[in-house]
Specification:
The complex is a heterodimer of chains A (239) and B (399). Chain A contains eight helices and ten strands. The longest helix of chain A has 16 residues, at 178-193. In chain A, helix 3 (103-112) crosses helix 4 (119-132). In chain A, a hairpin with a 2-residue loop joins strand 1 and strand 2 (19-31). Chain A is α/β, with parallel strands linked by helices. Chain A has helices spanning 47-54, 77-87, 103-112, 119-132, 148-160, 178-193, 205-208, 234-237, and strands at 5-16, 19-31, 36-40, 62-67, 70-71, 88-91, 166-170, 197-202, 213-218, 221-227. In chain A, the strands form two sheets. In chain A, strands 6-7-8-3-9-10 form a six-stranded mixed sheet, with helices on both faces. In chain A, strands 2-1-4-5 form a four-stranded antiparallel sheet, with helices on one face. By secondary structure, chain B is of the alpha+beta class. Chain B has two domains: 3-51 and 266-397, no CATH class; 83-254, no CATH class. Chain B has 13 helices and 13 strands. Chain B has helices spanning 3-16, 18-56, 88-97, 132-136, 148-152, 162-169, 211-218, 236-251, 261-304, 306-314, 319-352, 362-388, 392-397; strands spanning 61-65, 102-106, 109-116, 119-128, 140-143, 157-160, 178-181, 184-192, 197-198, 201-202, 206-210, 225-229, 256-260. In chain B, the strands form three sheets. In chain B, strands 3, 4, 5, 6, 7, 8 and 11 form a seven-stranded mixed sheet that branches. In chain B, strands 2-12-1-13 form a four-stranded antiparallel sheet. In chain B, a hairpin with a 2-residue loop joins strand 3 (109-116) and strand 4 (119-128). In chain B, helix 2 (18-56) runs antiparallel to helix 9 and helix 9 packs across helix 11 (319-352). The longest helix of chain B has 44 residues, at 261-304. Chain B is elongated, with a radius of gyration of 32 Å. Classes of the chains: A alpha/beta (239), B alpha+beta (399). The A-B interface holds A 52, 55, 57-58, 77-78, 81-82, 84-86, 90, 92, 96-98, 100, 109-110, 112-114, 158, 162 and B 1, 5, 12-13, 16, 307-308, 310-321, 391-393, 396.
């Protein structure tokens, strides 16, 4: 069986002048397609570094990383940017929308960096995604005119616009109240049911209840892994 | 990414910081406009000198009294007393020896006054002969030129420059009228077309009389210079050799200098292109200052937009995309600024032409535009490279 993500012995060392700070120390991880995984750990544990490497925003100091069977750990800037553009979607804690673009333009941002991007089809898809997330009436608005939950839904639409293979969410509910946070989790759960592979990085133990696998990271190492026997749906948890 | 999209992105983000973009564009506008304007003075001077030389004809030669080795000093002895001066006799002698030679006394002048209503105005009176229109390339607006008979007959005829004709007679035709000049009554037989300023100043306020009459009245025999053009079929160099031999034999010594117009044209060209180059450099300095302004602004912009760069990279922009995005912003500033600057420079040169001759050449427009784009690229590359090299992870963390 081929894994979507196959990481072997990932090491990441940051250099601060003469001092070398290891952020990841030999992390290995396999992810099958369609899975919903949460990565938890205290701040400084290396979970963000792991997400950056798995999300092709950064390259490991050593180790191998295969995405869909392709070794991406030694790719150059141009190749990595294409992988990020076509195969990966990001959802951030701070939403990271461009304030001077409209909602629609923000959603279409990844398309303009896609050499095969078809703006006409992408625009149609953007409208579909925004409608699906209840933002049809917001397409011409700027992010500053939106609520936090709305901004995060725009960010999810942007992450999905190029039909990625995998979605990375870095504390996606961290800047939201609990009600809105659950709404976002519900969207993420639904996307998984539609076949999306998702990795959520968080330090919120509540979120892990909704994921199938929980990977615990501490001091740059995978400390343990749990398989949730009961995976909650967002509704069951109540609000 | 398509160029149109890059331009749109650049315009969009320049619009966001409208005041800042306008100010940095203004730096380029001022630079390009001053480059176009001040080089137009240089080109204007150059064209004026060359056209006045061309009017005389490139095969014209000038004989001046006194022997000098450097043509820049050829006219230093004009008007000074010299033991063996050039005389009108020399002109007649050369014309008799070289059939078909066009030769006229020139720079042989006296100051006089003429009455205009109640006022007296000062004029320059030139003694010339029947060849002077042909030799100097002047044209008449009305009347006729001097004939050999007029000159040999000591006729009190006068030809007026265009401005003095208007000063004296307004809109009336001066032909057949008389004026009092050097205590002698002269009848006007012709009026020149406006000549503008020529190599040796304006002749539009000059009055021309036959050299024979001039010599009699002023009681001088020395000519300031003799202008000559070779007869049909004779080259300038042959003429120079002939004149040199004939005059040396006649005077017994080579106490004169022969210069040709081509030399003057070269000299004038060199002088004005030094001027134009110097002016261009001053204009370029203004442009470079504008370019530094752009670099400063772009560096601030890159720092401010670090997070945006991180977001764009996260969704798939590569370093080249980011580089082009920021480079196009500075190119747009300079293209817009350069275009406005060219328009202002051209209009300014038109307005300034009343003060001093100006000329806009295609070269100055092409240079102005391409230099401003080059400034945009040169000063935009460093901030753009800086932006493109940002690490996406660190850029996303930037607050």
């Amino acid at each position: 069986m081929q894994y979507l993500i196959e990481a072997r012995n990932l090491v990441k060392v940051y250099k601060l002048g003469e001092v070398k700070i290891p952020a990841l120390r030999r992390v290995s991880l396999n992810v099958t397609e369609g899975g919903l995984i949460s990565v938890i750990g205290p701040s400084g544990s290396g979970k963000s570094t792991l997400m950056h490497i798995l999300g092709c925003l950064d390259t490991p100091t050593s180790g191998e990383y295969f995405l869909e069977g392709v070794d991406v750990s030694k790719m150059n800037d141009y190749e990595l940017s294409r992988v990020r553009n076509e195969k990966i979607g990001f959802v951030f804690q701070t939403f990271n929308l461009l304030p001077h673009l409209t909602v629609l333009e923000n959603v279409l941002l990844p398309v303009q960096y896609n050499p095969d991007g078809d703006l006409k089809n992408a625009t149609r898809r953007a409208y579909e995604l925004l409608e699906k997330f209840g933002l049809k009436h917001r397409t011409k608005n700027r992010p500053t005119q939106l609520s936090g939950g709305e901004m995060q839904r725009v960010a999810i639409a942007r992450a999905l616009i190029n039909n990625p293979k995998i979605l990375f969410a870095d504390e996606p509910t961290g800047n939201l109240d609990s009600k809105t946070g659950l709404e976002i989790l519900k969207i993420l759960k639904e996307l998984q049911k539609e076949g999306m592979t998702e990795i959520i990085v968080t330090h919120d133990l509540n979120i892990t209840k909704f994921t199938e696998r929980i990977i615990k990271i501490k001091d740059g190492l995978i400390e343990g892994e749990e398989i949730n026997r009961i995976v909650y749906d967002v509704e069951e948890e109540g609000i | 990414m398509k160029i149109i999209r890059l331009f749109r992105m650049a315009f969009d983000s320049l619009r966001l910081n409208r005041m800042r973009s306008i100010l940095s564009t203004l730096g380029i506008v001022v630079g390009v406009a001053s480059l176009i304007l001040i080089t137009s003075f240089g080109y204007g001077a150059q064209q004026q000198i060359l056209s006045s030389i061309n009017k005389l004809g490139s095969n014209a030669i000038i004989v001046t009294p006194g022997k000098v080795n450097d043509i820049r000093r050829a006219f230093s002895s004009v008007g000074s007393t010299i033991t063996k001066p050039l005389t009108y006799d020399d002109v007649k002698f050369l014309k008799s020896q070289i059939p078909g030679l066009i030769a006229t006394p020139s720079l042989t002048t006296a100051r006089s006054t003429v009455k205009v209503g109640e006022n007296e105005i000062s004029v320059t009176v030139n003694g010339v002969n029947e060849d002077f229109l042909t030799a100097l390339g002047y044209d008449l607006s009305s009347g006729r030129g001097f004939t050999a008979t007029d000159v040999n007959g000591y006729m009190n005829y006068a030809i007026l420059g265009s401005k003095i004709a208007v000063d004296l007679f307004g809109t009336e035709s001066p032909i057949g009228k008389s004026i009092n000049l050097l205590n002698t009554k002269f009848y006007i037989i012709g009026v020149l077309l406006p000549q503008g300023s020529t190599m040796f100043g304006s002749v539009d306020r000059n009055i021309f009389i036959p050299i024979t009459k001039f010599i009699t009245i002023t009681n001088t025999n020395s000519l300031g210079a003799i202008y000559m053009k070779p007869p049909q079929g004779m080259s300038k160099d042959v003429l120079i050799a002939l004149v040199k031999t004939l005059l040396t034999n006649k005077h017994g010594v080579e106490n004169f200098t022969i210069s040709d117009m081509a030399q003057f044209a070269d000299l004038a060209n060199t002088a004005t292109s030094i001027l134009t180059t110097a002016l261009t450099l001053i204009g370029l300095i203004a442009l470079i200052v504008g370019g530094i302004g752009i670099m400063n602004i772009m560096l601030a912009t890159v720092a401010e937009r670090t997070r945006e760069i991180g977001i764009r990279k996260a969704v798939g922009a590569n370093s080249r995309d980011i580089l082009l995005q920021f480079l196009f912003e500075s190119i747009v500033i300079t293209v817009v600024g350069g275009t406005i600057g060219i328009i202002i420079g051209v209009v300014g040169a038109r307005l300034a032409s009343s003060l001093s001759p100006t000329a806009i050449t295609p070269t100055s427009i092409i240079v102005g535009f391409s230099v401003s784009v080059a400034v945009g690229v040169f000063f935009g590359v460093y901030p753009a490279v800086k932006a493109s090299k940002l690490n996406p992870v660190e850029a996303l963390r930037y607050e």
